[in-house]
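Suppose you are handed only these lines of text.
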Amino acid sequence: MEGHSTYQPKGKVAQWFESRLPIVGLIHSSAIAYPVPKNLNYMWTFGAILSLMLVCQIISGVVLAMHYVAYAPVAFERVEHIMRDVSYGWLIRYIHANGASMFFMAVYIHMFRGMYYGSYKAPREVLWILGVIIYLLMMATGFMGYVLPWGQMSFWGATVITNLFSAIPLVGETIVQWLWGGYSVGAPTLNRFFSLHYLLPFMIAGVVGLHIWALHHVGQNNPDGVDIKNVAKDSVPFTPYATIKDTFAMVVFLIFFSWFIFYIPNYLGHSDNYIPANPLSTPAHIVPEWYYLPFYAILRSVPDKLGGVLAMFAAIAVLAFLPWLDTSKVRSAKYRPLFRQFFWVFAAVSVGLGYLGSQPAEGGYVIASRIFTVYYFAHFLVILPLLGLFERPKPVPASIADAVLAKSKGGAVVVAGAAGPETK
Ligand code: HEM
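From them, the structure of the protein bound to protoporphyrin IX containing FE can be written out as follows.
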């Protein structure tokens, strides 16, 4: 997909510069002339939305850091200072706090889109694995960010999660003390979490660069899962087509985001985090942010601590093996009738796990978590490998152009049929 740039610098200075650093040509080939499959739907705008959210989080985070102090005795009140005394501090904080949730919402849509359309299959395995690395880095960043306001949930969430490492045989306790920088979550923990919370987004930005490089090298997948064969017939140039569509989707997403910021800024947070951290008082329920809940449910579904920790990490690690666990030659769920149904069951199970993660770990909730956890793993380790062998996919169109024409012909029939009775 690379090498489609037709960019020729015009002026002498531009030519001089381009022959030394061909950056304008790079922008031209990747954001203007780059061929985009002509059948992409709005699910393909989430990469752009995610890039926007990453920039939004970095800018709002850097401004917050100008006023925040990562010292345990004052951290909580510094956040209140931002909310009350700093000009528009409340806005910047609400952008950053809700932005994290929006970022995860967008990433989950982006990942499920990839799973539905088989975007992880050859030749996009590395692109997918880079995505899984980004996701892991996002989870680490979000976790450390939540500790910074130094409220009750910050403190106890950090205590629960860091304690998980103590389940590792022999070295567990040592690792936990090393993470804490002491013998409990305290001032040194807050300081190092702040340092890493500032660092990781830039690492994410680096991996996103690789992610997009890999994407541009292999080309985009699309709803029909067939490759671009004829650039003229199957694709359109990135600008203006994708640029306009992405911009429109970003604006709609920003409206949704604004609704949270301006109307329900604390809806996704936990009220206990407005109580200063108190090591002597444990909250009744320690719940992580919503985007960790499915993994939290998996963690608690296993009665053994080490087993739970392993299951939780395995639930994320298994994603990296998806390209090889799915044995079907057909990419898109559009042509895989059975897979399509299992996909929706899997999506429902993931949401169900999220709900169970928010409930107390007792009685029926634990039993349901166990069943759902088993199903989660069975989807990857049993259903996907077998489906590829036994499923009979529908015929896949020969090209993107064929798929688009078949759809518009189908559309014409429907329109003619609908118009029929009215014209009589
Ligand atoms: C900061 C987070 C991320 C950013 C900024 C980002 C950015 C992008 C962009 C711009 C695209 C192309 C447009 C599109 O397909 O929507 C893309 C494609 C893709 N991303 Fe991401 N991504 C992120 C996270 C992830 C994660 C967590 C995964 C999976 C675990 C992932 C997997 C993919 C795949 C498989 C594609 C190719 C899709 C296709 O062509 O069908 N990405 N990403």
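What can we learn from it? The longest strand covers residues 35-37. DSSP finds 17 helices and two strands in the chain.
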